[in-house]
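#onboarding

Welcome to the new folks! Below is a worked example of what a typical request in this channel looks like: someone posts a single protein sequence, and someone else replies with the predicted structure as tokens. Don't worry about understanding the tokens yet, we'll cover that in week two.

Example request:
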Amino acid sequence: MSSHSKYDVKLPAAWAVPDEFRNRLGKHVGRQRMMCVDDQVLLVLHAPPLPDEDERRGRFFWRKSDGTWVSDQLGQGPGAVVKHLNEYDQRLGVLEKMEDEAKHAEDHYVILESLSPLHRAIHNMHSVMQDLRKRHPEAREVINMRDQAYDLERMAELLATGTKNSLDYKIARSAEEQAAASDRMAVASHRLNMLVAFFFPLATITTVFGMEIRSGLEKMPQPHTFVAVIGIGLLMGFFLMLFVRFRNSK
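Example response:
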């Protein structure tokens, strides 16, 4: 992997943040977390992860000592954090719609694949918001952010549970349908075996006596010989059918 990432991040140069904030940041965004120096807070959060995205796109939200907010991507004021949370809400809304329209097990699997990193990011973000709430219990906007993050996590949990239950149901129903089809095939195969067993001796006898071999039976009265051969063949077939059924019942 290249040492340079398209998601390399750093704090804006114009921000007059404490040096500790810059010193504690690495080349990559790392995990979601909160940094505090005196009355200043820096939130390191992740943008909503995209499907099959290995690296996380970082966002910074700086709360100054006077209580004002500024972000590196979403503008100023506490509304910047709200915009960030709303993006997660929109992504969950898209997945909820996909879950409502899902018809096949593969559709539910795709939803779970997209939901898993999103759910994990929301869970970690909620933990950061909870830490921020403890740090500034007097800030009303922080309470609202924490509550919205909690609602997102709850929504993600419910969506994940519902999607997994739907997937398990479709898999179980498919297994039952396959089992029922196998039972029908087994019954049909058994009936075919019975028919083959019943008529096999007769077919064998007619094949043998249909050959040009002088056995003496051709001199006997034809109707009686024909009836006798048919009767013997069917009788042998009946006993062979009973034998096959007895073997299959074991």
